[in-house]
Automatic annotation (TrEMBL):
Keywords: Manganese, Metal-binding, NAD, Oxidoreductase. It holds the Pfam family Iso_dh. Transmembrane segments: none annotated. InterPro entries: ICDH/IPMDH, IsoCit/isopropylmalate_DH_CS, IsoPropMal-DH-like_dom. It comes from the Bacteria. SMART domains: Iso_dh (SM01329). It comes from Halomonas litopenaei. Its cofactor is Mg(2+); Mn(2+). This is Isocitrate/isopropylmalate dehydrogenase family protein.
């Protein structure tokens, strides 16, 4: 087969270039440049600083025309628009909305050789997926909140039927397909909300329920977000797929990442009906940028998610095989025990870790 896939690749800011570079190197080693073609594209806060553009039209067009998007991370402190507001990760947000990437998929899995701060948990026992609604919720208020006479401020929370139905359906279908299962072997969708206090969350739960009724094989479960933070620490092995409104999904996925080693191990995929963007669940971590200190695992595993998504979209087994080899290589380096990323208190930097992943692939 000579099919090739165009991957729109945006390094971005901070540690973005380091972790995206590492991932491209590994993906090329896995499949060769005939199968995957990486187009490096401009964008981000640093690019804005130089050119006055966060997301050039040419980058957006190339993303639209590509098979998938691989992203490092975006955002740099201190880079602001003329009105003084931070540019931040606007590149990422513009892509999210421009391509309607409504489901933010964040697997939380404890890898071999990684110590969880939840000491009684072993690899394999924490293995669930958070599906964060990515286009509305409280974050829909971004830029639209108001401050009244410096005395009061307010934002609004928006939940739509359409937005909730599509993300709930996505999460239920994911539960149907996924391999990892909770300890009791049940397929389960946990709806995480605050339905007891706010009407919008009660509506979110009701719409999830309605869609869930079409899926007899997936058990519906509910948790208020405050209780959810306790459950994810005390009994993470109970969970299969969790669906949450944008803000709550953001918060519980950082919590989940911490339980399996840190921000640097958590991958993410942002998916719409036509496009997919893959990047670590972390931001651009400017505090450690340029020091070869970043953990590349999150982006490497996002690369594996990209291959798996492309494999399904294009019915191409070569890509799912490659994704499996990539996961095994990361697991292999971690299990070896000699190469602990700096994020875990070890001394293996981004490039040294990547080198070991490449070794595993050769061996
Ligand atoms: P965002 O607003 O995009 O969520 P953030 O301000 O929350 O970004 P992150 O970049 O996600 O910040 O990360 C918070 C901290 O976690 C970083 O400052 C860094 O110390 C650490 N961190 C994040 N990603 C990594 C990584 N890949 N490797 C090592 N440490 C990381
Ligand atoms: Mg964050």
């Amino acid at each position: 087969m000579s099919v090739s896939y165009r991957i729109a690749t945006i390094a971005g800011d901070g540690i973005g270039p380091e972790v995206a570079g590492a991932t491209v190197q590994v993906l090329q080693a896995l499949l060769g440049s005939d199968v995957l073609r990486f187009d490096w594209l401009d964008g981000g806060a640093g690019h804005y600083d130089k050119t006055g553009e966060v997301l050039p039209q040419s980058t957006l067009d190339a993303c639209r025309a590509s098979h998938a998007i691989l992203h490092g991370a975006a955002g740099l402190p201190g880079v602001t628009y003329d009105d003084g507001t931070e540019v931040g990760n606007d590149l990422h947000l513009k892509l999210r909305f421009g391509l309607d990437l409504y489901a933010n998929v964040r697997p939380i899995r404890l890898l071999p050789g990684v110590e969880s701060p939840l000491r009684h948990h072993q690899p394999g026992t924490i293995d669930y997926v958070i599906v964060r609604e990515n286009t509305e919720g409280l974050y829909a208020s971004r830029g639209a909140g108001v401050v009244l006479r410096d005395e009061m401020a307010s934002d609004s929370l928006v939940i739509t039927r359409k937005g909730t139905e599509r993300v709930a359906r996505f999460a239920l279908e994911l539960s149907r397909r996924r391999q990892g299962a909770p300890k009791d072997g049940k397929r389960r969708l946990t709806v995480c909300d605050k339905a007891n206090i706010l009407r919008s969350y009660a509506f979110f739960r009701r719409v999830c329920d309605e869609v869930g009724a079409e899926f007899n094989d997936v058990e519906l479960d509910y948790a208020y977000v405050d209780a959810m933070t306790v459950h994810l620490v005390k009994r993470p092995d109970f969970y299969d797929v969790i669906v949450a409104e944008n803000l709550f999904g953001d918060i519980i996925s950082d919590l989940g990442a911490a339980t399996v080693g840190g921000m640097g191990v958590s991958p993410s995929a942002e998916l719409g009906d036509r496009h997919g963007l893959f990047q670590g669940a972390h931001g651009s971590a400017p505090d450690i940028a340029g020091q070869d200190a970043a953990n590349p695992i999150a982006t490497l595993l996002s690369g594996a998610m990209m291959l798996e998504w492309l494999a399904v979209e294009h019915a191409d087994d070569r890509l799912s095989d490659a994704a499996g080899r990539l996961r095994q290589a990361v697991d292999g380096v971690l299990s070896d025990g000699r190469y602990r990323p700096r994020e875990f208190g070890g001394d293996t930097g981004c490039s040294a870790f990547t080198e070991q992943v490449l070794r595993q692939l050769e061996g």
